[in-house]
Design a protein that fits this description.
The protein is an alpha/beta fold. Helix 2 runs parallel beside helix 3. The longest helix has 17 residues. The protein is built from 8 helices and 15 strands. The chain folds into 2 domains: 151 residues, Rossmann fold (3-Layer(aba) Sandwich); 123 residues, Rossmann fold (3-Layer(aba) Sandwich), CATH 3.40.50.2020.
Length: 293
């Protein structure tokens, strides 16, 4: 007998449409979360239906992270108080994972703080391509059940369907894992560039002289595009080396400081997964998550 009647998909403020997709794919009940802010900025939150005895899946993408986190913390605690059988966080994009060490004295390791709070409030978390650089897995900071999914296959399928004879490039060593994996699935050439970061806005890219990009379609792949400074430097250099078309593909589309518009003005085509709602979304990852529910 299916336990789907015992599962509910709750759409938090950052992922209502994404949650509806999951509910439709899993044939689980969708429940909107009613949220509002009082004049002083405090959050008011209520479930719009009875969740007693249910497995509750809170769907929230953690861009604009602080408000989104507080909402999920409140929702998870409230769900337990209302008798939920289990509370699970579905985070298409998981914030704070780049803050994975104490970069300066006395600094918070924010990823650990975030995980510690979730460990107390939820029973499990599902996420897509978290930024695992110094951590080998989420289990290093989470004690609850974790499931890490990857969009590699979906990105590879998008490239195969839309880009002819691509050369895939990872802008730096951190992104090379995605670039190499996707290239292997497609069976195309892959390379990685050397990056030196001086500040959050000053990035230098070194391209190997042996790269012959004349008249070719170059696909730059990274997990996150935030300020876009790395991508912009690479776009400039591959254009100089004669690339005919340039594609920037990412999993998580933060695109702060108008970086999306800047990349487009430079002539790059920009495509992202829908872990964060953005006009560049062209790759749907909701099915990955639905299969885990």
């Amino acid at each position: 007998m299916s336990d789907k009647p015992c599962k509910v998909i709750v759409g938090c403020s950052g992922s209502v449409d994404f949650a509806k997709r999951i509910a439709a794919q899993t044939k689980c009940r969708f429940i909107p979360l009613d949220t509002k802010k009082f004049p002083d900025g405090e959050l008011n939150l209520r479930f719009t239906s009875d969740i007693k005895g249910k497995k509750v899946y809170l769907v929230q993408s953690f861009y604009d992270p602080n408000d989104k986190l507080i909402e999920v913390f409140f929702a998870a605690k409230t769900a337990k108080e209302l008798g939920a059988r289990g509370v699970f966080i579905i985070a298409p994009y998981l914030c704070y994972m780049r803050q994975d060490k104490r970069f300066r004295p006395y600094e918070a390791i924010s990823s650990r703080v975030m995980a510690a709070i979730m460990n107390r409030l939820a029973d499990g978390i599902i996420t897509v391509d978290p930024h695992l650089h110094r951590y080998k897995s989420l289990d290093e900071i989470f004690t609850i059940r974790t499931k890490t999914l990857t969009a590699d296959d979906l990105i590879a399928d998008y490239i195969k369907d839309n880009i002819k004879s691509p050369i895939i490039i990872g802008p730096d060593m951190e992104s090379y894992q995605w670039a190499r994996t996707v290239a292997e699935k497609i069976g195309c050439e892959v390379d990685v560039l050397k990056k030196k970061r001086y500040t959050s806005e000053h990035v230098a890219i070194k391209i190997k002289k042996r790269l012959d990009l004349g008249g070719k379609s170059v696909v730059l792949i990274d997990d996150i595009i935030s300020t876009g400074h790395t991508m912009m430097e690479v776009v400039k250099d591959v254009k100089r080396l004669g690339a005919k078309r340039i594609y920037c593909i990412c999993v998580h589309a933060l695109f702060v400081e108008n970086s999306y518009e800047k990349l487009r003005k430079m002539g790059a085509e920009v495509v992202s997964c829908n872990t964060i709602p953005h006009k560049s979304n062209g790759i749907d990852v909701s099915g990955l998550i639905s299969r885990e529910i």
